[in-house]
Amino acid sequence: MASGVKPRVKVPKKAAVGEAITIKTLISHKMESGQRKDKSGNIIPRSIINRFTCDFNGENVIDVTLEPAISTNPYLEFQATVPSEGEFKFTWYDDDGSVYDAAKKIAIG
Amino acid sequence: MEFTRRETLALGAGAALMTVLPFRANAAVDDLINEFTGGAAVADGGLELTAPEIAENGNTVPIAVSAEGATAIMVLAAGNPTPPVATFKFGKLAAAQEASTRIRLAGTQDVVAIAQLADGSFARASKTVKVTIGGCGG
Amino acid sequence: MNFKALTAIASALTLSASFVAAGGADDDTLVVNDEISIVTKAAAPAHMADAVDEVISGWHFRTDETQSLQADDFDNPGMLFVEQGLDVWNTADGSEGKSCADCHGDPEESMVGVRTVYPKWNEAAGEVRTLQMQMNDCRENRMGAEAWKYDKADAINVEAMIASVSRGLPMNVAIDGPAAATWEQGKELYYTRTGQLELSCANCHEQNFGNYIRADHLSQGQINGFPTYRLKNAKLNGVHSRFKGCVRDTRAETYKPGSAEFVALELYVASRGNGLSVEGPSVRN
């Protein structure tokens, strides 16, 4: 697992049934592109988060393929519909096989 | 092999042109688009791509894509060493088919987005982003 | 043509580097999280009466896209490192088995306002100390832990966390009394030309702020926003590391982060921003 990886998500605490909400996510990750060279001229191997998914009660909201052109500390913002109370699950997939996740509950009201 | 001064100058000009060209036309981009569309025609309209006209630093350029009813949107940076940037696939609970992120641009170039719309057709949008190269490394 | 443009032309004629007049500071306002109003322009402190009328945060010299990253803590990538700094704050370290929190409690209470007065004279040590020096004093003498390397990971993350709880409060470093000699030394450094380009801090940041040097939009070089998350290297940058970068860009041998020279320069440059709000961690290009 890459060191110092820390996910952050921003989800409203409450929404009305059927309401559209904005979700923001940020994760600390260097997103090494595989294009850079170290001081001795060797290519630094690619090491990125290559996929991100957000699901709500098992139903998909968004599924993103990330490439090395995504900036360090990847940021994603998108819209979700809230059909009922429940839990958003966020998952980031690292090139090295690590999986980072976060969850946020949302209430109706 | 020896070069005259004039030939050397001509070579220099050619080399300068070569360094500019990859930012204009890129076969890799066309291939990636064909792969995404399966060779289907791509029309303008129905897809909005937001990107700054001038990016203060190519390392972190905010972009957003939006296409009502789209199932997927692919973003490419035509002038990057590897053009793919991201592909957003929208699930059933996406309230709008839009997303924002921050991307790396190797230099001034066109950012291209292709959306697969609800009816299965494809739309394209592109935007030229000028990337500032500052002198103050800090 | 405004006065700034005339200054730029005069400078271009006299300096080896050329500045292009354009831009200036914009008139936007910064409110963080819709709740913390940031003072980004203020009347210049008395000691700068001969230099400029108004002190302006570097925030005003950035594009709207960069500016907006600082308006919301979630959009500000620097806050990732503030969270890491808070983790470090709460973690015991060293032979005494103590964390920062064991003595200082919740930084949102104990550390409010601390950023505004550093660098600061330390009577017992008989020297002006930066916040990082004071943190290392705690580590070595109270925690029995190793000093952090200047401007590096834990040091800069904790400094950013301490700055973050003072956002919105005005910078107010003391320049008189026992700190006066260090402040004078810093002032001298600020106006001393260095390197093959023979540029002083003042040549760019006092005489030409708002103008362009090549593609760079020059700010006043204020440090109220440090530590600052730079888009360029996608990490937090410390004041001394930034000084080092600037001095290096004049093609000079530079002082080291944590050196007595940079401590003095930090005090002086901080005093040029007295009245501006603490912004750290800010976002810059």
What descriptive keywords fit this protein?
heterotrimer; A: 109 residues; mainly beta; 5-stranded mixed beta sheet; 3-stranded antiparallel beta sheet; 0% helix; elongated; C: 285 residues; alpha+beta; 3-stranded mixed beta sheet; 11 helices; globular
Walkthrough of the structure:
The complex is a heterotrimer of chains A (109), B (138) and C (285). Chain A is mainly β and 109 residues long. Chain A has strands spanning 7-10, 14-15, 19-27, 49-56, 59-66, 75-82, 86-94, 99-108. In chain A, the strands form two sheets. Chain A has a five-stranded mixed β-sheet, with no helix packed on it. Chain A has a three-stranded antiparallel β-sheet with strand order 1-3-6, with no helix packed on it. The model of chain A has no long low-confidence stretch (mean pLDDT 94). Chain B has one domain: Immunoglobulin-like. In chain B, 20% of the residues lie in helices and 40% in strands. Chain B is built from two helices and nine strands. Chain B has helices at 5-20, 27-37; strands at 42-44, 48-50, 54-55, 61-66, 72-77, 84-90, 94-103, 109-116, 122-131. The radius of gyration of chain B is 18 Å and the shape is globular. The relative contact order of chain B is 0.23. With 285 residues, chain C is of the alpha+beta class. Chain C has eleven helices and twelve strands. In chain C, a hairpin with a 2-residue loop joins strand 8 and strand 9 (216-217). In chain C, 45% of the residues are buried. The chains are: A mainly beta (109), B alpha+beta (138), C alpha+beta (285). Chains in contact: A-B, A-C, B-C. At the A-B interface, strand 5 and strand 6 of A face strand 6 and strand 7 of B. Strand 5 of chain A pairs antiparallel with strand 6 (84-90) of chain B, so a sheet runs across the interface.
Outline the fold blueprint:
The complex is a heterotrimer of chains A (109), B (138) and C (285).
Chain A: E1 7-10, E2 14-15, E3 19-27, E4 49-56, E5 59-66, E6 75-82, E7 86-94, E8 99-108
Parallel strand pairs in A: 2-8
Antiparallel strand pairs in A: 1-3, 3-6, 4-5, 4-7, 7-8
Chain B: H1 5-20, H2 27-37, E1 42-44, E2 48-50, E3 54-55, E4 61-66, E5 72-77, E6 84-90, E7 94-103, E8 109-116, E9 122-131
Parallel strand pairs in B: 1-9, 3-9
Antiparallel strand pairs in B: 2-4, 4-7, 5-6, 5-8, 8-9
Chain C: H1 3-14, E1 19-20, E2 30-32, E3 36-38, E4 41-43, E5 54-56, H2 64-68, H3 78-89, H4 100-104, H5 107-110, E6 120-122, E7 127-129, H6 131-143, H7 153-164, H8 180-190, H9 201-205, E8 212-213, E9 216-217, E10 228-230, E11 235-237, H10 239-249, H11 260-271, E12 282-284
Parallel strand pairs in C: 10-12
Antiparallel strand pairs in C: 1-8, 2-3, 4-5, 6-7, 8-9, 10-11
Helix pairs in contact in C: 3-7, 8-11
